[in-house]
């Protein structure tokens, strides 16, 4: 009998928090993350299934890749998790890093050595920033994916390996295919199971959990009990986090370094404060440029109330009715949001029944 989605989600949450060896690697309970974890558990039972992780930088694609590997590790022969950042290695070195090299293949190749494909045998090869891989090398990677075999640079011997390939990108690969910057046949080979990592701004309910997680980790590192003030917490909850989880982690680290009494306060979050202030100032300036006082004047109170209600409704619509996330978008607390909704409802009732 198949489990209901709700039962399966509850099981994953329990597993993540208590029994699973990946506990502590994934923090959060938002629906999108739970679906990703459910898929990760399913994919892990197929050791050779390829996975493509898509999402903005800093959303944790590397963490999910390692989670899939660790879950696979329990049900199959142990193997290494071998990561490579395709954007960080020069084009002329990337091929030798992946496939290895035979002695004498070029001037400095004095010894034969294995590449990352050989090291990842019976394990996982994680190709981060796959969109940055040169087209010439894409063709060679495609051949490997089709045959599970390769040759070292400068060699003729065929090596056969079995491994899982997990790729990650923060770019639109389909758009890159359309621009002839990425091979369509390689895209379809990599794109067996696709997981889309949500940005942190769409995981408002996970922010407190992540903040507490990074605080506990910094406390353990420093051997002191660190905490955060309500004002600083509110600032973090209302920030949009363009750098996602990585930016949040760095913000907590910065706050822990700069705080004086082991309590993070707004003045200790320099980057967040300056970015948030600049963003608010720009948005206000842009809004004011489109506002002009009519010659006949206006009812300022009614206009401001209408604007406020319009923004509240828009925020609720974007967040699927979730008041916590809508309040965060508006920079107010959930209690204030509820109060303003109730006030508007009461006002409308008075107008309808004078």
TrEMBL record:
Any one Pfam family match given in the protein's UniProt record, by short name: HTH_8
GO molecular function, one term: ATP binding
Keyword Transferase attributed: no
Ranges of residues in domain Sigma-54 factor interaction: 26-257
Keyword tags: ATP-binding, Nucleotide-binding, Transcription, Transcription regulation
InterPro entries tied to this protein: AAA+_ATPase (IPR003593), AAA_lid_NorR (IPR058031), Homeodomain-like_sf (IPR009057), HTH_Fis (IPR002197), P-loop_NTPase (IPR027417), Sigma_54_int (IPR002078), Sigma_54_int_dom_ATP-bd_1 (IPR025662), Sigma_54_int_dom_CS (IPR025944)
GO biological process, one term: regulation of DNA-templated transcription
Matches recorded under PROSITE patterns: SIGMA54_INTERACT_1 (PS00675), SIGMA54_INTERACT_3 (PS00688), SIGMA54_INTERACT_4 (PS50045)
Designated name of the protein: Sigma-54 factor interaction domain-containing protein
Organism: Dictyobacter arantiisoli
């Amino acid at each position: 009998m198949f489990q209901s989605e709700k039962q399966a989600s509850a099981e994953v949450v329990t597993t993540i928090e208590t029994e699973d060896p990946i506990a502590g690697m994934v923090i959060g309970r938002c629906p999108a993350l739970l679906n990703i974890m459910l898929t990760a558990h399913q994919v892990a039972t197929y050791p050779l299934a390829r996975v493509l992780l898509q999402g903005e930088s800093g959303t944790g694609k590397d963490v999910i890749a390692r989670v899939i590997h660790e879950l696979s590790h329990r049900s199959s022969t142990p193997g290494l998790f071998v990561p490579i950042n395709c954007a960080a290695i020069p084009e002329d070195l990337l091929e030798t890093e992946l496939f290895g090299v035979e002695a004498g293949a070029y001037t400095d190749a004095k010894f034969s050595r294995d590449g990352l494909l050989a090291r990842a045998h019976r394990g996982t090869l994680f190709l981060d920033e796959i969109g940055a891989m040169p087209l010439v090398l894409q063709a060679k990677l495609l051949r490997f994916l089709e045959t599970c075999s390769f040759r070292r640079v400068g060699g003729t011997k065929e090596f056969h390996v079995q491994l899982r390939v997990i790729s990650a990108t923060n770019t639109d690969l389909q758009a890159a295919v359309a621009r002839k910057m990425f091979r369509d046949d390689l895209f379809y080979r990599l794109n067996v199971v696709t997981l889309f990592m949500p940005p942190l701004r769409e995981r408002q309910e996970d922010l407190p959990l992540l903040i507490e997680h990074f605080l506990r980790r910094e406390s353990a590192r420093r051997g002191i009990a660190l905490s955060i003030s309500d004002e600083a917490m509110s600032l973090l909850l209302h920030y949009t986090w363009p750098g996602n989880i990585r930016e949040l982690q760095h913000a907590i680290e910065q706050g822990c370094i700069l705080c004086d009494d082991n309590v993070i306060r707004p003045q200790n979050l320099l980057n967040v404060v300056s970015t948030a202030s600049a963003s608010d100032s720009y948005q206000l300036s842009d809004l004011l440029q489109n506002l002009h006082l009519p010659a006949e004047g206006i009812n300022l109170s009614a206009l401001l109330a209408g604007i406020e209600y319009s923004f509240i409704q828009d925020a609720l619509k974007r967040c699927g009715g979730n008041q916590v996330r809508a309040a965060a978008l508006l920079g107010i607390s959930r209690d204030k949001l509820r109060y303003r909704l109730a006030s508007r409802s009461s006002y409308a009732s008075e107008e309808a029944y004078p």
